[in-house]
Amino acid sequence: MTNSRRGGAITALFVSTALVLAACSSSDSGTTEEPTTGATNGTASDAPNAEPVTLTWWHNGVAGDAGENALGDYWDKVAADYTAMHPNVTIDISQIQNEDLQKTRIPTALQSGDAPDLFQQWGGGEMAAQAAAGYLMDLTESNADDITRLGGGVAPWQAGDNTYGLPFQFGVEGIWYRKSLFEKAGIIEEPTTMAELNTDVQKLKDAGIVPIAVGAGDKWPAAHWWYNFALRSCSQEALNAGTGSYDFSDPCWIDAGDQLNDFIGTDPFQPQFTSTVAQTGATSSAGLVATGQAAMELMGQWNVFVYEGFTDGSDQAIADLHEDLGWFPMPATSSGAGDPTAALGGGDGFSCYVDAPPECADFLAYIVSDDVQKGFAAAVGGLPVAPAAAEAVTNPVLVELAQVAGNAGYVQLWLDTAFGPNVGGAMNDGIVGMFGGQNSSQDIVDGMTAAAATA
Amino acid sequence: MTALETSGVGQGSAVDANASAAGPRPVTPVTNHKRRDNIRKWGEITLFVGPALVLFLTFVVYPVISAARYSFYKWNGVSQFSDAEFIGFENYARALFGGTDPDLKQAFTTQYSQPFWEALGHNFAIIGLSMAVQLPLALLIALTLNRKFPGRPSVRVIMFAPYVLSEVIAGVMWLIIFDPNGIATDFMHSIGLNPPAGGWLEDQTWAFWVVFFIITWKYIGLAIILFLAGLSGVPEDLQEAASIDGASWWQVQWRINIPLIGPTIRIWAFLSLIGSIQLFDMVWVLNQGGTTGQYSTIATYMMQIGFFRSDWGYGSAIAVIMFFISFAVAVAYMLVVLRNDNTDRIRKAR
Questions:
Q1: Could you tell me which residues are beta bridge partners of residue B74?
Q2: pLDDT at A63
Q3: Which chain A residues have any C-beta within 8 angstroms of a chain B C-beta?
Q4: Helix crossing, B62-70 with B312-336: angle to 10°?
Q5: pTM of the predicted structure, to 2 decimals
Q6: Domain boundaries of chain A, sorted by first residue
Q7: Residues of chain B with pLDDT > 90: what percent?
Q8: N or C: which end of chain A has fewer CB within 10 A?
Q9: Could you tell me which residues are beta bridge partners of residue A327?
Q10: A184-213: pLDDT as tens digits
């Protein structure tokens, strides 16, 4: 009886698995057909009679408002190219919106024990927690060559001595500005110190221009100001004590809040900034800069694409925008133990699920290979991690941004990503409380310390 | 609402049971029929109740029990639950009074307990304000709309329209209206006033009241429609008799109509009470309860900490606290306020 029941269950499992596989392989979008002919490059899995393998892949390349999807299309091509070289591999792609993917889909899939083989990975504390729970494949040995070739950019995807993910994109943040508005306010040079920035803020205000847009309604854009002050105030040791063991006893964390409080006191932001979101609509902070309503915004490398989204999409409009768009790194503060050349940054990568077939690591190696990285820069306009692909970046602002990243003393991962959602979330809430006039510098650190005690 | 439905079902089945027990069938001593009837009865029960019961157990009872279980653990939602640390009632203590650890009490009180009580305070403020503002307003509109005048159906539809709109659509609409560069700001400027300094939906003083205004706009339609339905059940001859005796319009409303729709008003108040405790979607769409929790509710607070900060054990404890508050308030209201209405109905049924 037991046996027959188990037999039935196995049959049911087999049938349902077959159905799922059939459904996956017959879906139109995102599935790459197995080619009938294909080049083989001689590894074991490439033999014509190798076992068929299906890799499931979840990434965040979804279509924009106008239906364009440069990233998603490029990943489809990468998967098709790979399966052409490895006819036994089928890649089943799901394109999922970034926040849904990070906050809901991946955590739930990992919990269920039925996770995708290859999935988006942002690195830092969240990845470390996934690795500690035993969900991630250790790529340290299988992808040793890639890790060496990509260099320091891999650090956020490492926990302890092991590597659990590889990045395909990495960039640092700085301040985007409209050259025409700077000109109108009589600003000739990009500010390099906070004192110069404060002077420029005043010049812009005198000219009736909103100096800086910030999407404090979304919390994290406001928090990035504090991160940058912390980067200047704290030594790398203090930052590592924070990210490594949630030790925020160094007074530099309080100092970061004091500097931010002073800066907010100079009233550099647009009115009602805590009601402004970062990217949605023309009244968002990005919209204000893109439409010339505000002069500056502190943001990551992706914002050039967000600004482009506010044009009519024509080549001329995008060219005009690029012509008028400048970028400079976060100005240096007058004091602080931090390296003045250090930069804040972050990126996107992929991890393999612990039970994924070995082809996952091989495909990931292909994704971060020099040629695919060059193609990524050319087709998507992103900032690749592989040093050999740097020449494929053509946008002058992104070239400058890549140089700043290359010359940085070190690049600190976004603090909220580095701390993970619990402490990172408490930090962002505390910082936006300071923007709302509710929190002191001490309150921010207290919130982080309290959250750390619950982790 | 759930409690109400449950009690309704309970009464219904009790009446059915009595009816079949007192029915004429048992008089005929045909045991075969009886057994067949019995099988049929259970077959029908299984067929009709089974699927709903399975869904209810899977998607309501099981998650409730799971949440109660998670609430006793320190769990980040990422690691395996089997590795989570059992900490007893510590999550509850952290929410209610800052926990039991003397070293962390101060920090936990400011960071966790105070926001929790503030969120709960907002829920109860909305309950109080609903009774104080929405009830008289809805009653006044319903009494007015109960009179015959040209265009009355259109006005009724317009009054009810916000309630039919999806929460998210209505929320986004108000977000656009109250945008820093939106028409509400423009209007204030045009009449020579300044909008709230921190923004309509973020100002420490005004945000809560703006949100209460939006909630009132959204949900008052339900109250009006319920009251109108109640008023349509009031016999016209009573009103005519009062008018003939010289009662003014106000006296008719005050002495006849309002007392007679008492049960409807009490049911609306019950729905409003439960809705206010569980208030989530509209507040969430309006920037998740405010960047500093200016209008957070217990449900948005649970979502913020449990889900977005991955503090699943604590979030589950908040969920369980919310469950008990809803439950206690619902039961208390049914026992104290609705008891007379229910007794009346049962007496009438007999």
A1: B85
A2: 80
A3: 103, 107, 110-111, 126, 129-130, 132-135, 216-217, 219, 270-276, 281, 283, 420-422, 425-426, 429, 432-433, 435-439, 443, 446-447, 449-451, 453-455
A4: 120
A5: 0.83
A6: 31-169+347-392, 172-345+399-454
A7: 62
A8: N
A9: A176
A10: 999 999 999 999 999 999 999 999 999 999
